[in-house]
Amino acid sequence: MKLPAFEYACPATVAEAVTLLASRDEAKLLAGGQSLVPMMAFRIASPSLLVDLRKLSELRRIDITKDGVRLGAMVRWRDIEDDARLDTAHPLLKAAIAHVAHYQIRNRGTVGGSVAHADPAAEMPGVAVACEAEIAVVGTAGSRVIRADDFFIAPLVTALAADEIIVDIRLPAWPAQRRFGFQEFSRRRGDFAMAAAVVFYDVDDAGKARNAHIGAIGVGDRPVRLTAAEAEVNGKLVDLAVAERACAAASAAVNPQDDIHASGAYRKSLIGTMVERALMSACAQH
Ligand SMILES: Cc1cc2nc3c(=O)[nH]c(=O)nc-3n(C[C@H](O)[C@H](O)[C@H](O)COP(=O)(O)OP(=O)(O)OC[C@H]3O[C@@H](n4cnc5c(N)ncnc54)[C@H](O)[C@@H]3O)c2cc1C
């Protein structure tokens, strides 16, 4: 399908990109085009100006420090897959990103585009919320940092102002002994999740779980933390009985709607199973 007509700009600096984005109401940023271009083809979006971020190489860095992992907004799924440092610096991120789309899309799609697009079934927003990531943005009023939990508001709706650009996504540091699991169910490999669970916890000297974080993807209008399921894990030696109780708590905590892919009741049951499997794979790690 042909795209609607648009003007095109390819700025060399973030400041220039912000100025262009603020220059008219119908301007939109172009990252990998993997969500925006299909939306334009279907006339769901008709921007009059596309501001292409591809020359902004400073947004394509992956920085790893003692504070955590900083993913520039233009980092592509493929960059994450190829970065061996992330095997230890953030193995959960790597495990989750392996489920994103297909090879061709992973070569172009970006973390900033995914976070800005805010699909409730997308992996990166779910990882960001579960890991308490921060999203750094810059606009005409200056820079600010938004907690992931405050960033995602509804499907395709975020806390970003119209003139703001995401510059990076900051994931807190990952301790070496942390246990984690990522489980996703989709109809075909690379499809968006019908439901997915993000799980991690630390272990105290007695082998008991603490600092449990359990996130759900695809079962609501935004990614969420499942605090009732986390409470079933904290202070426990994680085993099948604990995982089953967390499974029940996870199912009880969500109320997904029926849609063309599945009934709400099916997804409600599915997220419990994903949490249970993720916990079992986490506790089998050491
Ligand atoms: C067939 C298919 C299957 C897919 N499957 C999956 C999947 O399983 N899981 C998944 O997570 N995704 C999936 N995707 C989406 C894919 O991951 C995209 O990479 C992702 O949605 C972001 O796209 P993009 O980086 O190309 O951004 P674009 O399409 O260029 O932009 C998306 C939106 O983000 C805005 N934007 C882009 N960059 C910024 C920025 N730095 N600051 C502010 N706003 C910005 C744009 O203006 C636009 O509104 C799939 C896509 C396709 C076509």
Task: Set out the fold topology.
Blueprint: E1 7-9, H1 14-22, E2 27-30, H2 36-41, E3 49-52, E4 62-65, E5 68-72, H3 77-82, H4 86-89, H5 91-97, H6 103-106, H7 111-117, H8 123-130, E6 134-139, E7 142-147, H9 148-151, E8 152-154, E9 157-158, E10 165-172, E11 179-185, E12 195-203, E13 209-217, E14 224-225, H10 227-233, H11 240-253, H12 264-283
Helix pairs in contact: 10-11, 11-12
This protein binds flavin-adenine dinucleotide (FAD).
Structure summarized in a few sentences:
Helix 11 packs antiparallel against helix 12. The protein has helices at 14-22, 36-41, 77-82, 86-89, 91-97, 103-106, 111-117, 123-130, 148-151, 227-233, 240-253, 264-283, and strands at 7-9, 27-30, 49-52, 62-65, 68-72, 134-139, 142-147, 152-154, 157-158, 165-172, 179-185, 195-203, 209-217, 224-225. The chain is of the alpha+beta class and 286 residues long.
